[in-house]
Amino acid sequence: MVEDREIIRRCRLGQMSLMDVLIERYKTDLYSLCEKLTRDPSDADDLFQDTWMNVVKNLEKYSSKYAFKTWLFSICLNRYRDLYRRRKRWWRRITRISSWERPEGNPVEFRAPDPDPEETMISEERKSTVREAVEGLEDMFRLPVLLHYFQGLSTAEVGEVLGISPGTVKSRLSRGREKLRSQMEGLGHGRA
Amino acid sequence: MDERELETVLHALARERRAPSERLLRRTKSAIRGRRLFHLVAFLSLGTQAMGVVAGIFVLMSPEVRPAVKILTLAGLTSFFGAIAVVVVAARRQVVWFFRRVERLTA
Question: For site-directed labelling of B45, which of A19, A134, B17, B99 has its Cα 20 to 30 A away?
Fold first, then answer.
């Protein structure tokens, strides 16, 4: 498998068709982040495309000391901040719960080991409640939670993407979890 | 809900991932490939049209050109700008879509 850095080097030399390899490699990671950030399928599509267009535009600025994935996520988050965070789309939030079941797109298995029996016992209702609680978090806490738990980045990588120190990431994750738990208690899922 | 249970649910949610649709992938790849080509075509197209308009104005202002040719040129220029106006009015949505696309490609 050709390494990301090598692909980028060749793209800089003009072999732009190799971008297809990177798109295929990171399509699921990036799209799931876009979907969770925007909470809307059509916005997720726009953000996905905008992110790749910005990758191409800023290819010269990429430094090989960072992993491509963290750089890609940084661009995605910057585009999200620029394009979507300021929009007051409250009317879309009303329908967002039903939009999680989207007709288009291909469900894929995450590259994680098989779920343990305990995970299979988690009710859909509980998942749905946690999902809503995550969506309800402020971005300051939601973004580290999305990147760490949902995208599998380490705290150091989350720090790189968000431009904050790993210590701050750990602190925000901890406070985010605390907020999630208190929201769950508020919704009737009390401490065991 | 305790810490361990919350982490278990979060990890279960992390498994729920979707790949983008094939249509979106195709669109993204072709937008990347078409970026340079689009710039070239847009440059050539706008350049040609601008040259045509400049040539038309030159013909209109030249004293050596026969009146019949001037009338034809004026008719041509009027048709050109009229066509642009009609297209913009009749296909507002497509024009907006086109400029959004241009904006995205050149952003």
Answer: A19
The 10 Å CB-count burial string (b at 16+, else e) for B88-106 is: eeeeeeeeeeeeeeeeeee
Partner residue facing B104 (CB), from A50, A177, A189 = A50
B103 to chain A: nearest residue by CA?
A: A50
Q: Strand A106-108 to strand B17-19: parallel, antiparallel, or no bridges (unpaired)?
A: antiparallel
Spatial separation of the C-alpha atoms in residues A3 and A16, rounded to whole Å: 15
List, for residues A104-135, the tens digit of each pLDDT value. Answer: 555 554 444 455 555 555 677 788 888 888 88
CB spacing of A23 vs B31 below 8 angstroms: no
- CA-CA distances (angstroms) from residue B57 to B45, B61, B76? 19, 6, 11
Distance set, CA B78 to CA B57, B59, B71, B85 (Å): 11, 14, 10, 10
Put simply, the answer to whether A131 touches B13 (Cβ < 8 Å) is: yes
Confidence of residue B11 (pLDDT cuts 50, 70, 90): confident
CA B7 to chain centre: 47
